[in-house]
Amino acid sequence: MNFFASIFGKKLNEVPPNRETEHKTVPPTIFLTQEEHLSHKATITATAANSIPTLKSHGYHIGESVELEYFFLTNTDLQAHELSESLIALDYDSEFGILEGSDLFLVKGKSTPIELSGPNLSSWVSEMCDLGFRHDCKLDSFSIPEIASAEQDAAPNHSP
């Protein structure tokens, strides 16, 4: 489990590569209410600011430029597609698909580099929460890819 997934309590399944999403025909329903958005935004933004000491323990330094990996959830492919397009317009890498084992859609990708600091990280998380909410999507988690890779490499291998 990567660092931020451990903070937020879950790890998302990866979207299978090159998997075509099927058009999900459901009656329009709101995925994330404004109250849920504001509550989640306050929690994840505070957690981001408080994560700086842990990032330092992983060898990151204040002022260092890092790309952030992000994960949004929503309940329709149209919302996922529109959010993905908005992220691409910010020059972010973005893709979306069905979250394995779920009826939800996952939008994931990497940001352009941001300067690492508590205020910058909190601001970025807040902006991503708001962007997601405009598309009825929730910023579920984010991570620094190098930390996620290092934690996966350090995990015991249970292969035969």
**CATH level 1 name:** Alpha Beta
Q: Could you name the CATH topology?
A: Alpha-Beta Plaits
Strand order of the largest sheet: 3-4-2-6
CATH structural architecture? 2-Layer Sandwich
* Fraction of residues in H or I helices: 40-55%
Structural class estimated from helices and strands:
alpha+beta
The CATH superfamily turns out to be: RraB-like
Number of domains: 1
Mean pLDDT: 81
The number of distinct β-strands equals 6
Rg from C-alpha positions? 16 Å
**Terminal CA distance:** 21 Å
Strand portion? 15-25%
Strand-and-helix sequence, N→C? HHHEEHEEEHEH
Global geometry: globular
Unreliable spans: 1-21, 152-160
How many helices? The count is 6
Based on the model shown, name its key terms.
DUF4265 domain-containing protein, 160 residues, alpha+beta, two-stranded antiparallel ribbon, single chain, Alpha-Beta Plaits, disordered N terminus, 18% strand, four-stranded antiparallel sheet
